[in-house]
Amino acid sequence: MNIAIIGLGYVGLPLALQFARRGVRVVGLDIDAQKVRALNAGRSYIQHIPAAEIKRLVRAGKFSASTDFALIGASEIRNSPFAIQNSIQAILICVPTPLKKNRTPDLSFVLKTGRAIAPHLQRGQLVVLESTTYPGTTENELRAVLEKGSGLKAGRDFHLAFSPEREDPANPASRVADIPKVIGGYTPACLAAAKNVYARAIRTLVPVANCRTAEAAKLLENVFRGVNIALVNELKGVYAAMDIDIWAAIAAAKTKPFGFMPFYPGPGLGGHCIPIDPFYLAWRARQVGQETRFVELAGEINRAMPAKVIARLRQALAAHGKKISGAKILVLGLAYKANVDDDRESPSYALMDLLAARGAHVAYHDPHVPVIKPTRAHPHWAGTKAVKWNRKTLAGFDAVLIATAHAAVNYPQLVAWSPLIVDTRNVLAGIPAAPGQVWKA
Q1: Catalytic one among 94, 190, 211, 273?
Q2: Using CA atoms, how far apart are residues 424 and 347, in angstroms rounded to an integer?
Q3: Are residues 92 and 240 in the same domain?
Q4: Do 402 and 268 reside in the same domain of the chain?
Q5: Who is most buried in 134, 144, 249, 356, counting CB within 10 A?
Q6: C-alpha distance from residue 69 to each of 117, 157, 162, 329 (Å)
Q7: Radius of gyration of the chain (CA)
Q8: Phi first, then psi: what are they for 321, rounded to 5°?
Q9: Distance of alpha carbon 5 from alpha carbon 317, whole angstroms
């Protein structure tokens, strides 16, 4: 079997490598020529994906990358590091689905990809969307683009399906092959075609009634997390007013062996799913005349967290006789979660923007992100380098704001070297500190 995977980021690349490991020949397509060159040379640009694995699969003739979308329709692929004697049977789309500035869905990447695929689409091929989106996207917007550009009909001339990505970067127990794969087809035949493809690489398949159900399942997974994180974020402030440590309460509650699942507060939501998906659902609900008050309230609570953290930082600085304006603040952790280099939608950017707007001198340190790459939402931070980790550097900051709890950080050194620390992750619990030195936020 030969497949094409479009979008070689945090979702597409691990999926491509898993298919390649199982003997499927994979052409990875991306508009970023730099990524393509790196992959064909056996280099990795994602920290938790080893270069050695990429190099092995490239040399074995199981994986190749290209910017040429015409390969989708080629009967023989000669201009890649390996030759494919048969055409591509399946095209899996793994591109971003961000929000616009007004927090409405931005399907531009999906639709542009559909338009790029359509002129090369062949009869009998399978197209699967993996990007998280609102129910109806696959069978309506994507299908329309594919049919218009190809002259073919979904369900008759080509197969169409939705199978949401499920990634947990830096979790060693989370392997692509072992994560059950939800699949919804445009028709029963489309579902059968998708199952045939994914069965080559994934151990457990979860077929559902249609594309809409698969799209809804993915949103449910992430809305569930967003709502529960909002709950503990709200309770953090409520409990603090009662002189109760929310972290201690959660630790006690999670000893219950049934009916409880621990979620933890933080400085805001990050990553490409949880901060975005609730708004995809809310937007689609309004289109069908429904309200999502609970979901939207959770979004409001989570979006307000960076400002609340800054307010707590202001209190801590005031206790030390200082103001935010003019203060030197170090944000510790730029990645959105611990032990990864993924900074998409990271709340650290919101914290840095708020601090800069209030006149603070802002710097950051992250052992996984040595320099900030260009981003759509925060291009003004591009090129900023992480400060060095040493006593002289840390002692020069008026306060350190812990935004991400990376395991690679030496927290006893942080406490020994920094005069004031605001901890949003409870990572300093149990580390002795001077009175008034560590503030929880």
Answers
A1: 273
A2: 11
A3: no
A4: no
A5: 134
A6: 7, 20, 20, 46
A7: 24
A8: 75, 30
A9: 50
DSSP code per residue over 201-220 = T-S-EEEESSHHHHHHHHHH
- Furthest CA-CA distance within the chain: 72
Structure tokens at 94: 């793994």
CB atoms within 10 A of CB 46: 18
Task: Give the number of domains in the chain.
Answer: 3
Please report, for residues 81, 360, 381, 418, 422, the alpha-carbon distance to residue 356 in angstroms, rounded to integers and kept in the order given.
Answer: 48, 5, 11, 21, 17
pLDDT at 85 over 60: no
Query: Where do the DSSP E strands lie in 62-101?
Result: 63-66, 90-93
DSSP strand pairing (181-185 vs 159-162): antiparallel
pLDDT of 75 over the 70 cut: no
Q: Please tell me whether residue 300 adopts helix, strand or coil conformation.
A: helix
Please state the length of the chain.
441
The values of phi and psi at residue 208, to 5°, are -125, 175
- Whether the Cβ atoms of residue 302 and residue 275 lie closer than 8 Å to each other: yes
Whether residues 370 and 272 fall in one domain: no
Same domain, 95 and 115: yes
Q: Is 345 helix (H, G, I), strand (E, B) or coil?
A: coil
As a whole number of angstroms, the distance between CA 24 and CA 26 comes to 6
- Label residue 32 left, alpha or beta by phi (over 0 means left) and psi (-120 to 50 means alpha): beta
User: Strand pairing partners for 102?
Assistant: none
| Model confidence pLDDT, tens digit, residues 361-411 | 999 999 999 999 988 888 999 999 999 999 999 999 999 999 999 999 999
Boundary (domain end) residue, out of 147, 179, 209: 209
Specify the pTM.
0.92
Domain hosting residue 357, numbered range: 304-440
**pLDDT of the residue at 82:** 46
Q: Which residue in 312, 330, 319 sits closest to 399, CA to CA? A: 330
Q: Which pair of structure tokens corresponds to residue 288?
A: 């069908």
Report pLDDT for 76: 55
- What is the average per-residue pLDDT within 167-174? 77
CA torsion 382-273-367-268 (nearest 10°) is 90
- Sort residue 276 into left (φ over 0), alpha (ψ -120 to 50) or beta: alpha
Question: Whose structure tokens read 């409870």?
Answer: 426
Q: Is 273 a catalytic residue?
A: yes
On average, the pLDDT of the chain sits at 94
- Number of other CB atoms surrounding residue 108 within 10 Å: 13
Whether residue 195 sits in one domain with residue 95: yes
